[in-house]
Amino acid sequence: MEIEAVYENVEHKDINHTFGPQTQNHKPAEGKAKKCRGSRCLVLITVGLGLICVLLLVFIILLYFTITAERDLIKSYKNTIEELQANYTDRMQKKGWFFMSSELKSWSDSRQYCRDHGADLVIINTEEKQRHISSLVSERVWIGLSHTEQEGIMKWVDNSTPNQGFWLKGEPNDLHGTEDCVELNPENPILKNWNDLPCSGTRHWICEK
Fold this sequence. Notes:
Radius of gyration: 52 Å
Shape: rod-shaped
CATH architecture of the largest domain: Roll
Largest sheet: 7 strands, mixed
Order of helices and strands: HEHEHEEEEE
Number of strands: 7
CATH superfamily of the largest domain: Mannose-Binding Protein A, subunit A
CATH class of the largest domain: Alpha Beta
Number of helices: 3
CATH topology of the largest domain: Mannose-Binding Protein A, Chain A
């Protein structure tokens, strides 16, 4: 009985000796695994943050170039508008501002009306302007051309002499008579629609400013 008890004790110790260290070795392995998993997560987080920073930087660069392009486009648009306005103003200054009356007056009264409003009867000294004025009217109108005190000499209201005329065939036909003022008659061809007649006649008129 004693021998068997000793044997059992020895066998029990061997078993504890064999399996004891193996059970203790599992804990460091598990720590290393957790440590590895923690390092991997840190790397992934770092890489993710890096990608976010790169994308943010790309977005800022694209936004900058977009804003710059829009600013240049707006600047170009403003310059174009200013240029168009300047060209329009220049053309209008060359063509003048026109007022077409709805009343009938003599040549002198028509001119006085224009002068009272800071303008004068229209002067037509180019083919372009003749075409433009003719296209604006549908009735006979006074223009700013008449005989001066010296018979037979036509002058505009600014005292200049005509460098071109757009007379009806056979006109002017009374340079030394009573037909001292000139009308434009749109019923005739555009380049041949001036006519002289007495200044006391009543017509519509065109003021130019």
